[in-house]
Automatic annotation (TrEMBL):
Its EC number is 2.5.1.114. This is tRNA(Phe) (4-demethylwyosine(37)-C(7)) aminocarboxypropyltransferase. Pathway: tRNA modification; wybutosine-tRNA(Phe) biosynthesis. The lineage of its organism: Eukaryota, Fungi, Dikarya, Ascomycota, Pezizomycotina. Keywords: S-adenosyl-L-methionine, Transferase, tRNA processing. GO terms for cellular component: cytoplasm. GO terms for molecular function: tRNA 4-demethylwyosine alpha-amino-alpha-carboxypropyltransferase activity; tRNA methyltransferase activity. Residues 189-499 form the SAM-dependent methyltransferase TRM5/TYW2-type domain. It catalyses: 4-demethylwyosine(37) in tRNA(Phe) + S-adenosyl-L-methionine = 4-demethyl-7-[(3S)-3-amino-3-carboxypropyl]wyosine(37) in tRNA(Phe) + S-methyl-5'-thioadenosine + H(+). It comes from the Eukaryota. GO terms for biological process: tRNA methylation; wybutosine biosynthetic process. InterPro entries: MeTrfase_TRM5/TYW2, SAM-dependent_MTases_sf, TRM5-TYW2-like_MTfase. Pfam families: TRM5-TYW2_MTfase.
Length: 503
């Protein structure tokens, strides 16, 4: 789909769909980065060309696209084609096609699934806090009202819960002289739920690096101590969000990190949702992490050149992808969305497996879960797009060897674990199809060392590949995802392995 003549147009969407729409357009190269997303009100001058103009509401936003409208093409068809392309056809009734939009100079404060914030009473959280303080009459809290209005408040909404920042909450307690256990806060929580249309509220906290609750930076220091002979504490390998503090609503019982959840545990837990790049995901926030910062890498997978027929040598549905650290489906779902025939996942956290299963079903992908030690008969589940092995990825090579005749060749392997996925690299090489493919190795690397570390990692993969066949091994690309610690970047190295007999 590529309309090039005529005037540029954009989409008018309700606030709840802003983040999802932008991500979906960006993932397919249809988002106009040169033009800002703007709020739309009834007073704006606009031309809504594919829907009823009455659908334009105060809580709607104009999202610019790079596509131009050809007057000879049905506008309704343009909208439908675009929504099909980016995976949002289900929202067609809520989205309008618009051109010639003139907007008031008002900045938006964020949207679903991302940090929303700002200071002043334009911030919805600040407005609610001031509204709440007004109900506490006779307490001399005018000073608190002034300080709260001037603070930069941040929050995130993952339906059905509101996630607040612990440092912001400390500001609130200091300004009011109240604590979160005060009875007055009960009325605040009720008010927040009403204003933000949620049922649960919690305080956010970073995922600790180990079971002592140390931060990533502290964990790096601890790792260095281990090199000096000091025994480090057990790592938080399940990425359990032990620092999350529920404030309102039932998130499920407090359970030990090593507890094996039952069906009753799954049923009693709160499950929340998010959509990124048009992909539905779900998780239980008390027991499972959600890495929102990976959205860039998820989108990149959808557009990988190595997932095209030109590079694969076959149609995309005729290959398989392996995710050795699948979590709730962060990258596995991107491979499925891109059209890969089978996605084989390994995950040891049963809460993540349950979230992956629910998410796959939410995306209408058939999914089959295989427990550790269970036999697998792939041929009996030929319609399944996603297979989830609830076991260590150390079993992956043996499992895939046993089913190679029943699944398309494995051409992509994702090793998405930090601070280093090195423990899985030999397995990744082993599960690749004999004709070669690509391994996406996640690694934390100091900015100053990226070039030298990349060269070292390529040499390491050459050694691993040599155990199977003589091969050409090269790093086709290094993607910088985000900062992990001061001076340290989360990187993804795209390692291409081509046996010389096939090169």
């Amino acid at each position: 789909m590529d309309y090039v003549s005529g005037a540029h147009f954009g989409l008018v969407v309700p606030k709840r769909l802003v983040k999802e729409t932008k991500d979906a357009l960006q993932a397919h190269g249809k988002f106009d980065k040169k033009t800002k997303i703007k709020p739309v009100s009834r007073s704006d001058s606009y031309k809504c060309i594919a829907d009823d103009p009455a659908n334009i509401r105060i809580e709607s936003f104009y999202i610019p696209t790079t596509i131009r409208v050809d007057p000879l093409i049905s506008h309704a068809n343009i909208l439908r084609d675009l929504l099909v392309l980016v995976g949002m056809l289900e929202h067609k009734a809520a989205i309008s096609l618009a051109s010639n939009v003139v907007l008031d100079p008002v900045e938006a404060h964020g949207s679903f699934g991302e940090d929303c914030g700002g200071n002043g009473t334009a911030n919805p959280l600040a407005r609610t806090l001031i509204q709440w303080l007004a109900t506490l009459q006779g307490r001399g809290l005018q000073t608190a009202t002034d300080s709260l209005a001037g603070h930069h408040w941040t929050y995130t909404i993952y339906p059905p819960f509101l996630l607040l920042v612990a440092s912001d909450y400390a500001v609130l307690e200091a300004a009011t002289g109240l604590t979160c256990s005060s009875i007055e806060f009960s009325s605040l929580y009720v008010m927040l739920c009403e204003n933000f249309k949620v049922t649960h509220i919690a305080l956010n906290a970073p995922i600790p690096a180990n079971l002592l609750g140390e931060s990533n930076f502290e964990g790096i220091i601890r790792s260095q101590q281990h090199l000096d002979g000091v025994q480090p504490p057990p790592l938080n390998i399940l990425r359990s969000p032990t620092g999350l503090t529920p404030l309102y609503g039932d998130f499920g019982p407090a359970l030990p990190v090593n507890h094996t959840p039952t069906v009753a545990d799954f049923q009693s837990a709160l499950w929340c949702t998010a959509r990124q790049n048009g992909i539905f995901q779900t998780w239980a926030p008390r027991y499972t992490m959600f890495s929102r910062g990976n959205v860039k890498e998820k989108a990149r997978i959808l557009e990988l050149d190595s997932l095209t027929e030109e590079h694969l040598g076959s149609e995309i549905q005729e290959v398989s992808a392996v995710d050795l650290y699948s979590g709730i489906g962060y990258f596995a779902f991107s491979y499925a969305k891109a059209g890969v025939g089978k996605v084989l996942c390994w995950e040891i956290n049963p809460w993540s497996v349950e979230g992956l299963k629910k998410g796959a079903e939410g995306n209408r992908w058939d999914v089959h879960v295989i427990k550790s030690g269970d036999s697998i008969h792939v041929e009996e589940y030929e319609n399944a797009r996603i297979f989830v092995f609830e076991e260590s990825n150390e079993c992956a090579a043996g499992r895939i060897d046993s089913i190679r005749d029943y699944v398309p060749p494995v051409k992509h392997v994702n090793c998405g674990y930090l601070p280093s996925s090195k423990d899985s690299w030999e397995t990744a090489v082993q599960v690749l199809d004999p004709t070669g493919g690509w391994i996406h190795a996640h690694e934390n690397i100091a900015r100053k060392d990226i070039e030298s570390r990349t060269a070292g990692i390529v040499d390491y993969f050459r050694g691993l590949a040599r155990k199977r066949f003589e091969a050409k091994v090269e790093c086709e690309h290094v993607e910088l995802i985000k900062s992990y610690a001061p001076g340290v970047m989360h990187c993804v190295l795209d390692i291409a392995i081509s046996p010389l007999s096939c090169a």
